[in-house]
Amino acid sequence: MAGSAKLIATIASIAALLSGALPSVAWSRSADQSSGSIASDRRCRGNHALVDKCFTVHGRIFTANGTPDVRIWPVGTKRHLGVLPPEREILPPCLRGQFGFAVRAEIYGDFTVCPFTHNRSGEMRMVCVEEARHLVVEYFPAEQNASNTYSRLEGCSLMGASAAE
Question: In sequence order, what are the beta bridge partners of 114?
Answer without folding.
Answer: 128
